[in-house]
Structures are given as C-alpha cells and as structure tokens.
Amino acid sequence: MNISELMTPNPISLLPDDPILEKINIFEDNNIHHIPVVSDTGDIIGMISSTDVDNITSVMGTISEFNRSILVKDVMTKPVFSFYEDVDIKQAARAMVDNNINAIVVVDKKENIVGIITSTDLLKYIAES
Question: Which domains does the chain have, with CATH numbers?
C-alpha cells in the first residue's frame, strides 16, 4: 500500500514569518498535530507540531511581548522528511522509527505538497486491519 492511500490530502501550511500566537488555534480547530512550513515559492522548509507550539507557549507565557514576536521559523523543525506519494507505507513507517519523527510531507514528482502522513495515520491503519 502506498502512503497516498493513508495520507491527509492538501494539508494546511504556514509561512516562516507567521507569528506563532496567531496560528495556535489552527491545530485545535482542525484536529491536527503537524503543519508543513513553506517558503513564498512553495518549497518545504520546515515542520511545526502542536508540541512545538505548546512547549514555546508554556516556557514563555502566552501573553508576554517576547512571545508575540516569536515566528514559525523560530520554532519549526528542519530539515523535513518528504516522500513521493507512491512510497510504500512500510518505508514511511521505517523512516519515522529510524529518525524519531511523527510526520512526513507527501509530494508529487514536481515536489508540490499533496498530503501529509503521520504516525497516527499508520497506527489507525494497523488498528483497523
């Protein structure tokens, strides 16, 4: 089975200069835990997780002036793992385990983001099989 069969298509993405505090609600409102960060040209440059946001807001406090100036690029993880949509789910699962990551951006042959696959997607598949 290919990751395209399990991925969430057309994921929300953020820009590196987006202020963190303005984007916190995206995670809860959409019931997601990972968001790719893309450049103005659409290149994948990072990944931000709800855990990243929780960590920074708990450390700095959500109402401080310093926290208001924290941008997505200050918190995002890089580099990002991306796989073509025809990659087997076992290869994606192995990459997650070997690299201690929980999400992989899925791209087409032109390197455009077409989806995201997470460890939760893989666990749901296993549970339902």
Answer: 3-128 (3.10.580.10)
